[in-house]
Design goal:
- The complex is a heterodimer.
- Chain A has a domain at about 30-275.
- In chain A, about 70% of the residues lie in helices and about 5% in strands.
- Chain A has helices at about 15-35, 40-65, 75-90, 95-115, 120-140, 165-170, 175-205, 205-215, 220-225, 230-255, 260, 265-280, 285-300, 305-320, 325-335, and strands at about 10, 150-155, 255, 345-350.
- The radius of gyration of chain A is 22 Å and the shape is globular.
- In chain A, about 45% of the residues are buried.
- By secondary structure, chain B is mainly α.
- Chain B is built from 11 helices and 2 strands.
- Chain B has a two-stranded antiparallel ribbon.
- In chain B, strand 1 and strand 2 form a beta hairpin.
- Classes of the chains: A mainly alpha, B mainly alpha.
Chain lengths: ~350, ~290
């Protein structure tokens, strides 16, 4: 018998996740270096994928972890975009701080939105968020100095003179528009890293445990002292902030904003829902798989217009009915691999080598 | 007088919204299913009526009568083979499946009928009006409102006077116990959605004859319908009618100040009710 006390640790690491962590570091370095060897078109595609991934991760955090099924995330995309436009076009701010300002604006919009929609449960909540998004759209359409219902463009050259564009121009020997694309891409990459980092950090923390507890059993979670409303509000506001940042970034790249497109339920919520559902809801890996599938589908089928959307809808319905945990869920069930493990396991210090299969 | 006129027009408009909402209210009341494709199913029914009118040269009201059993079957099959699979404690599957269905219907209609605005012609009926105590109201809006009342009365009769209604109420209260008493929830739910589709068809008749419609307008109808249901309170059909009237009056008042504010005013009225009475004005069922 060993008399020395065993030191127990709570861990979420698995062998796959440790190997994957190394791959992630490599991917991030590769991601930042991508403008060196990829064409401008490819960088723009990657930008699209990354921004959709941010939206998907946030929606997944809301619906998959906090049980807040929102159909109104377009409110924060559009509001973020509009706040950035206002800061750049009306107040002559540099786009870079304007993006941050847009995130704060979306966060502030999240407060009254949560105040109203948190009175609603489940399906009510879903349509409540949609109503709020419609209200924000209609109000923005009345903002005459930003073009009202027809929208407006960023002032000429605003993005070309953005902080950092000059350095990128010199660094890569490219012209201002391309340098703007590269910079926007880097910002999107940073945002993806920050979003996934935040969500993963949250889920591994004590609060994350509380959040999952609330999702799985509200009464039991309450009984052990988790305040569900506080948890949900925290998640909702964080998602508002990050979604607003993504919205601002998307509209830096687009350079033109109009209420119908900026608050489009199809572009910013339907696509995002399909990405998460197809990839696998309730996992961090799911949206990553989903966004790749989505991009491939879009590139091969975009010419078919509404057939494409119909197919996407059918795939979404099919996955929800027959494989509700999505592609990643199917894969993870077969292999047991988790790249972002959040399942806690108890391990003692010295005996770790004998505890195979934990 | 302009005030009275605005209120009357708003109340009549509310009748249309109550028709949009009654089917939603029925399905939600019985099985707690929120059908996000509800608005698109209304538009689908409107296109069905349009096809019957143009292809067979039927009168729109007769065409709607022909469409009723078709839509009933559509609703029955949808519920039996698709929606029933999603019911349970988790609210995610029904929401996502109906949301997906909404996208499928919208784009299916877009592919079949293009994005052009359509209207179901009613001939001379469209422009006729009657005078009610000094306020002139269109015959079609009046007919819509009366139909809404008829639908609400019929649904209440069905709910509280028939064996089917008793089974509906029992399943709504406790599906498991109702099952022990010989009710088969799956078929019952399918029948409920079928009946909701009958209401949807009636709503579609007035949607299509009173204004232009195109494949993209479904979601907005869903939102009005949903607002009416929430304002009225869960499980109360008369509440739903009242909710529709509040949205209608708010919209006509908004439009009277500034045409751009019509829709916004309806939403704001909804949010105000939500602020004061989160469970609606006449809640009956407990969610």
């Amino acid at each position: 018998m060993d008399s020395s006390p065993t030191i127990w640790r709570v861990e979420t690491r698995t062998r796959a996740s440790m190997a994957f962590a190394a791959v992630v570091v490599l991917l991030v370095i590769l991601g930042f270096a991508a403008p060196l060897f990829l064409s401008r078109g490819a960088i723009r595609d990657l930008f699209f994928i990354l921004t959709m991934l941010v939206l998907a991760q946030n929606w997944n955090l809301l619906a998959g972890y906090a049980g807040l099924v929102s159909v109104g995330q377009q409110a924060f995309v559009g509001f973020g975009g509009y706040a950035m436009f206002a800061a750049v076009a009306l107040w002559r701010l540099d786009p870079m701080p304007a993006i941050l300002l847009a995130g704060v604006a979306a966060f502030l919009l999240g407060i009254p939105t949560a105040f109203f929609t948190f009175r609603l449960q489940g399906a009510y909540f879903a349509i409540g968020t949609w109503v709020i998004a419609e209200v924000v759209r209609l109000v923005m359409a009345e903002w005459r100095t930003l073009g009202g219902g027809t929208g407006t463009s960023l002032p000429f050259g605003a993005v070309h003179h953005m902080w950092g564009v000059k350095s990128v121009e010199r660094l890569f020997g490219v012209r201002a528009p391309e340098a703007g694309d590269i910079l926007a891409y880097w910002l999107a990459l940073l945002l993806v890293i920050a979003t996934i980092g935040f969500i993963y950090g949250l889920l591994r923390s004590k609060r994350g445990l509380g959040l999952t507890a609330v999702r799985d059993n509200l009464q039991a979670a309450r009984a052990v002292g988790v305040d569900p409303t506080r948890m949900k509000a925290l998640v909702y506001l964080a998602a508002s902030f990050l979604t607003g940042l993504a919205g601002a970034l998307i509209y830096i790249q687009k350079g033109r904003i109009a209420p119908d497109a900026a608050f489009s339920v199809i572009d910013w919520t339907a696509y995002v829902i399909f990405i998460v559902v197809i990839g696998g809801i309730g996992t961090i890996e799911g949206p990553i798989v989903g966004v790749i599938v989505f991009f491939i589908l879009q590139n091969t089928l975009a010419d078919y217009g509404s057939w494409y959307l119909m197919l996407l809808g059918l795939i979404g319905v099919g996955v929800m009915l027959f494989a509700p945990r999505g592609l990643w869920g199917l894969f993870a069930d077969r292999t047991g691999i988790q790249l972002f493990p959040i399942r806690r396991s108890l391990r003692s210090g010295p005996t770790i080598r004998t505890s195979k299969g934990v | 007088m302009i005030w009275l006129d605005t209120i009357v027009q708003g109340v009549l408009l509310g009748g249309l919204y109550a028709l949009f909402a009654a089917g939603l209210s029925l399905v939600f009341g019985i099985m707690r299913l929120v059908n996000l494709a509800h608005g698109d199913l209304i538009v689908l029914a409107a296109f069905l009526i349009l096809v019957l009118v143009t292809a067979l040269g039927l009168n729109p009201f007769l065409a709607a009568l022909v469409a009723l059993p078709i839509m009933f079957v559509v609703g029955w099959l949808l519920q039996f083979f698709v929606f029933n699979r999603t019911l349970g404690d988790d609210i995610l599957p029904p929401l996502l499946v109906t949301f997906g269905l909404s996208i499928v219907i919208q784009n299916g209609l877009l592919e079949t009928f293009s994005a052009d605005s359509r209207r179901i012609g009613t001939g001379a009926l469209a422009n006729q009006s009657v005078s009610l105590g000094g306020v002139h109201v269109g015959l079609m809006p009046l007919l819509t409102f009366l139909s809404a009342i008829a639908v609400i009365v019929a649904l209440n009769q069905l709910f509280y006077r028939t064996a089917l209604g008793r089974a509906f109420r029992a399943t709504s209260d406790d599906a498991v116990t109702a099952g022990l008493m010989g009710v088969e929830p799956k078929r019952l739910f399918a029948t409920a959605t079928g009946i909701a589709m009958i209401v949807v068809t009636i709503a579609a008749l007035y949607l299509g004859t009173r204004a232009n419609f195109d494949p993209s307008i479904g979601p907005a109808r869903l939102i009005y319908a949903f607002e009416a249901v929430i304002i009225g309170g869960l499980g109360s059909f008369w509440g739903t009618l009242f909710g529709g009237m509040i949205i209608g009056v708010a919209q006509t008042f908004g439009a009277a100040f500034n045409p751009a504010w019509q829709i916004l005013a309806g939403h704001i009225a909804f949010l105000l009710v939500l602020l004061v009475r989160p469970r609606g004005l006449f809640p009956r069922a407990v969610d």
